[in-house]
Amino acid sequence: MSQPGWYPDPYGTGSLRWWDGQNWTERLNPEPLGPPRLRPPEQPRQQPGQDPRGQEGYYSAPYGQRADWGRPAVPPLDVNVRGLHLHADDQAVSYGTASLAWPHVEWVAYWAAQLPAGYGQRPGTQWIFQAGRFPFHGGPRVEVVIEHEALPGRPAGPEGEPERIWGRLIELCQTYAEQRLVTELAGRVRAGESVDVAQGLTVHPGGVRGDRVSLSWSAISGATVDGGRVWIRQSSGSAPVLYVPQQNPNAVLIPALLTLLRR
């Protein structure tokens, strides 16, 4: 796909997104009026004293950042994805020849992309996970793309349920990297610094600003991750007034960061 034009949005908004010939831009047609109401996968009922991670079908935060840090240690992940070894534990994440220790991770991103038919690919879903160091373009990173079934000419898919593997990877990231990242960002803001988060949102001691909109802390009711975007809502209404694409670096940290700073 090299010709600029409007194509089905690979990030699942249901709109068309403008491809400039090299990259997906932020232009959508039509522009969504609000977040689509996606339901996360249902989790099985948990018996008293039972650890849900051991249940089949358990998914760890597939649509966004969770705030239940402090849970027990997360079991390591050790599988093959697209013919490459994926391993993540309490120390690091590695995929193929790329590896990063969690304490060195400076940004994270994860999202589900709906693939349209055509352009040499089958329709379906890709579950994408990224973690890296700045600069975002050019710094070291680990990137994992998981699919239900391989595309033509590619190796077989990963062992087990792709979304479940993706969720386990997110859970490890949240436990061993995201808590530290959110705490560090909040500390910088509380010290009087303005911090750029997710390449489109500035968080500062008085509130947030982005896309020609500025909100004080008293005007913010919270943020949610939905439909491939992180939506920030006003206290005075239900409609979101700011959004950041979920695939932007550290966009998934915004809900927890705003919750921490609004306390």
TrEMBL record:
Pfam families for this protein: DUF2510 (PF10708)
Ranges of Pro residues composition bias in the record: 32-43
Region (Disordered): 22-65
Domain DUF2510: 4-36
Coiled coil region boundaries: none
Compositionally biased region (Low complexity): 44-57
Highest taxon of source: Bacteria
UniProt-recorded name of the protein: DUF2510 domain-containing protein
Gene source species: Actinomadura fibrosa
